[in-house]
Design brief:
Length: 377
């Protein structure tokens, strides 16, 4: 009976913990659940990028103006690569757990991991360890020379069936909801970017901006290159994660990120953005990506694709819309396709370009300013 009581108490603890977590996160999750609010997130766009992270940059950043300074020069094609913030969007020595997340889905997943899964795993492990030690000590031969012949205990059997079932039910709800959020497709009008895996580098194509492709190779260390060849400097990012050309994306708006491959299967993965998607030759996979704040985020190919699989890093640079447009122009691309979320249409855009997709202009449509829909729980 003691066991049954312990198990029941633990079960109640799980339920209480999980529902408290759900309540605490309900507003944020409800906001994510609505498909449209992703097109209506003015906060990250309206907030000017903080120059603070750049102030912390090491010496090589000296030649680089801050993000805020670069923004006004956008129309003039003033794109300057952003220096990464140490520890942000990249692995850190000695770090345990997941990287800090910079996308709504990533935040939800991180909460799922930290508030639900890790506590449940930890408590179950401790209970099982305690039971093992208890049996070993209490019922050892010298302390308990005549063992009980009991084979059934109804209360315990009910408890050890019902409690795990309840735990699974509690985990299932946020788990399935997270899964569903990850499968939401990008809204109409979202910027489309395609990542193509090659043996062994990446190509980033911008079909909405003229269709140009940026080829991205890993940067070698200074002692690995010939004289005059570009080598990695601190402002590029960590060793073996820095790339010569980055995937530049606008911040604070949904992006339809497609992946494919030209030869073998690769996988496009950026841990800090909670993004991992296989790149398969002959087919297009796509997933919505929303980046909360400007920054440089590092990832790697995550599908064993050949001998240089470990040398095809991914660098995503998220910048405000005007800087993104400036970068596009610097690449020879075109701007002017209306952004799904950003109300700021660049100066170079055609005058007739609407600020929103037509369906978003309909009265009452979420993109037209309706309050976020509640989550259908
Ligand atoms: Cu690969």
């Amino acid at each position: 009976m003691k066991l049954g009581m312990i198990a029941r108490a633990a079960g109640k603890g799980f339920v209480g913990l999980a529902f408290a977590g759900l309540l605490a996160n309900a507003p944020a999750l409800a906001q994510q659940a609505a498909p449209a609010p992703a097109t209506e997130t003015p906060a990250p766009v309206a907030t000017p990028p903080s120059p603070a992270p750049l102030a912390e940059q090491p010496a090589p950043a000296a030649a680089e103006p801050s993000v805020a300074e670069a923004a006004p020069g956008a129309a003039a094609g003033g794109y300057t690569p952003m220096a990464p913030t140490p520890g942000k969007g990249m692995p850190v020595d000695g770090n345990l757990g997941l990287q800090p997340q910079f996308s709504p889905i990533g935040e939800e997943a991180l909460w799922m991991h930290d508030a639900i899964l890790m506590p449940v795993i930890t408590v179950i492990s401790l209970i099982v360890l305690f039971l093992l030690l208890w049996v070993v000590v209490r019922y050892r031969r010298s302390a308990n020379p005549t063992p009980s012949k009991t084979t059934h205990n109804v209360a315990i059997e009910i408890a050890w069936t019902v409690v795990p079932a309840l735990i699974l039910a509690v985990i299932a709800y946020p788990s399935i909801r997270l899964l569903a959020h990850q499968y939401q497709s990008a809204p109409a009008g979202a910027l489309t970017v395609k990542a193509t895996g090659y043996q062994w580098y990446w190509g980033y194509t911008y079909p909405d901006n003229g269709g140009f492709e940026v080829i991205s190779n890993m940067l070698k260390e200074p002692n690995e290159v010939a004289a005059g060849e570009r080598a990695r400097i601190e402002a590029d990012g960590p060793e073996q994660l820095a790339a010569d050309n980055r995937m530049v994306l606008p911040v604070g708006e949904p992006i339809r990120l497609q992946t494919t491959a030209a030869d073998v299967i690769h996988a496009f993965a950026v841990p800090a953005l909670w993004f991992k998607l296989d790149s398969v030759p002959g087919r297009i996979n796509e997933k919505v990506l929303f980046i909360n704040e400007p920054g440089v985020y590092f990832g790697q190919c995550s599908e064993l694709c050949g001998v240089r699989h470990g040398y095809m890093p991914i660098v995503v640079e998220a910048v405000p819309r005007p800087q993104f447009d400036a970068w596009v122009l610097a690449q020879g691309g075109t701007v002017g396709k209306p952004a799904a979320a950003s109300p700021s249409v660049p100066a170079a855009a055609p005058a007739a370009a609407p600020a929103q997709e037509p369906e978003s202009s309909e009265p009452g449509a979420p993109g037209a300013g309706a309050p976020p829909a509640k989550i259908a729980a």
